[in-house]
Amino acid sequence: MNIVILTGAGISAESGLGTFRDKGGIWSRYRIEDVATPEAHARDPAGVHAFYRMRREEAAKARPNAAHTALARLQSDRRHRVTLVTQNVDDLHEEAGARPLHMHGRLKGALCAACGHRWPAPMEMDETTPCPACGERTARPDVVWFGEMPHHLDEIDAALSEAELFAAIGTSGQVYPAAGFVEMATAYGARTVELTLEPSGAPFDERRLGPATETVPHWVTELLD
Length: 225
Prior knowledge:
By secondary structure, the protein is of the alpha/beta class. It has helices spanning 10-13, 26-29, 32-35, 38-43, 45-61, 66-76, 92-96, 153-162, 181-187, 212-224, and strands at 2-7, 81-86, 101-102, 105-112, 118-120, 139-143, 165-169, 191-196, 206-209. It has two domains: 1-17 and 65-104 and 149-225, 3-Layer(aba) Sandwich (Rossmann fold), CATH 3.40.50.1220; 18-61 and 107-143, 2-Layer Sandwich (SIR2/SIRT2 'Small Domain'), CATH 3.30.1600.10. The strands form two sheets. A six-stranded parallel sheet has the order 3-2-1-7-8-9, sandwiched between helices. Strands 5-4-6 form a three-stranded antiparallel sheet.
């Protein structure tokens, strides 16, 4: 079966990483325009780097949970062709053994705003960190900020066009273009399912409510059986 899975912050919440839009989430404590836009980085690079340094430190302490492990098991099963797409910038899918497409980049990555070179981000990266390729002190986190184009959109669209099943796990369904994937999958003829704590309101064929560490392993077991 051709399966496309989209994961959001909710799948990593049980590993100790904060969600964004829930009560007490990251965007209730930080303003998007202060830490997650190119303009914020230009205006206050030290503040933006401090925010992402804090997030790298939190992510380094986290470990994959049962939901990450279940998806890795599903992706490794030769009976299915699974495209795993994540909005998350942590590496918990990789640590569980999966191969995700990171729409929004990765906390472990650094990007030179001058020449576009990418390299592994040091934990203590800041506005004085030089690019190893061009030497300019224009390092930034290799994450997709608001107003920037997400990664892998062509590959994701191609996978959705062939999908027989589309699943969204732990995502609020509020951020485009990912929020539109369910409509795209439906238009291409796929069956759709949402696994989440709170329903998004998007037009899924099926919903399974509960913690990802419970719903996802059960769902994966059903698919593999």
